[in-house]
Amino acid sequence: MRCTLLGTGDAVGVPAPLCDCEYCEESDPRRRPGLLVETEGGGDGTTVLLDVPPDVTSALHDAGVTDLDAVFLTHGHYDHAAGLSELNHARYERHLLNGPELGHDHPVSDPFSVRVPRSVLQTYATRRPRLVDRLGLTVVPPGERVAVGPLTVEAVRVDHGEPLFPTLGYVVRGPSTEPERGAVDPAVVGYLPDLDAAPDPEAMPVGRFDLLYAEGSVLGAELHADAAALRDGLAPLAADRRVATNVSEHMLRLHTPAVEARGREVGYEVWRDGDAATV
């Protein structure tokens, strides 16, 4: 599997709106969070998107992705879900200003499934019912495993402001790029971008991750959780590599080299937008 962080930033992003601080001015941009998971196979591969940030259109084009097989949302906050409106545009059959006699005036993307927590479906069903219909939003409950081609995506409940913001993390299993592992020993990736507290290791459906993406409060800033407490809570989740999401030089008041150095100190890689790894 190939995993690409489309966005590495927090809800604010880098640069922050209307900010001219040195950390915003001197850092590379950071989009809001989103993880792309792909299997090999060129045009026949499988592509899954976890979270749909508001910058999803440019992020997907930068990644060279024009087809999706499935989308999964962790929760309904703007930085994780606002890109649903962008994907909705891909499902329009014709431009809104065109009459029916003009027919389709731009390509319509191939169908892709969109699975969301129940709270997200309830919100959009009230506010954006046509989007729900066009994208076919479907509830994914904690514990459910969804097969998407050779990938299996499992939803897990995590603590992010419960009960106000019911939130999921995801565990993705799929074919490894290491031929000797084969189908018997799939690669395992965890995606836990927003955490007020670390999940119970006993509740995790796997014993070890090849790659674990986790809440950037482990670096400091502590937007969601105490940094030391979160690192200690996540430590029992065995992982070959750990990557911090929701990273912000603006909030940390650190330049990028210092942020990356802090990540090395606490055992977390700090990526830039578009960085990828294979497992």
Contiguous low-pLDDT stretches (5 residues minimum) are none
User: Percent of residues in beta strands?
Assistant: 15-25%
Give the CATH H-level superfamily: Ribonuclease Z/Hydroxyacylglutathione hydrolase-like
Q: Which CATH C-level class is it? A: Alpha Beta
Task: Indicate how many domains the architecture comprises.
Answer: 1
- Largest sheet, if any? 7 strands, mixed
CATH architecture: 4-Layer Sandwich
Principal-axes shape call: globular
Count of distinct strands: 13
Query: Roughly how many Å is the radius of gyration?
Result: 19 Å
Helix content: 10-25%
What does this structure look like?
There is one protein chain. Strands 6-5-4-3-2-1-13 form a seven-stranded mixed beta sheet. It has a six-stranded mixed beta sheet with strand order 7-8-9-10-11-12, with no helix packed on it. Helices cover 22% and strands 24% of the residues. It is globular, with a radius of gyration of 19 Å. It contains nine helices and 13 strands. The mean pLDDT is 90. β3, α2 and β4 form a beta-alpha-beta unit. The chain has one domain: Metallo-beta-lactamase, Chain A (4-Layer Sandwich), CATH 3.60.15.10. With 279 residues, it is an alpha/beta fold.
Summarize the helices and strands and which ones pair or pack.
Blueprint: E1 2-7, H1 22-25, E2 34-38, E3 47-50, H2 56-62, E4 70-72, H3 78-81, H4 84-89, E5 113-116, H5 118-127, H6 129-135, E6 137-139, E7 145-148, E8 151-158, E9 167-174, E10 187-192, E11 208-214, H7 227-234, E12 238-244, H8 249-252, H9 256-266, E13 276-278
Parallel strand pairs: 3-4, 4-5, 5-6, 10-11, 11-12
Antiparallel strand pairs: 1-2, 1-13, 2-3, 7-8, 8-9, 9-10
Helix pairs in contact: 5-6
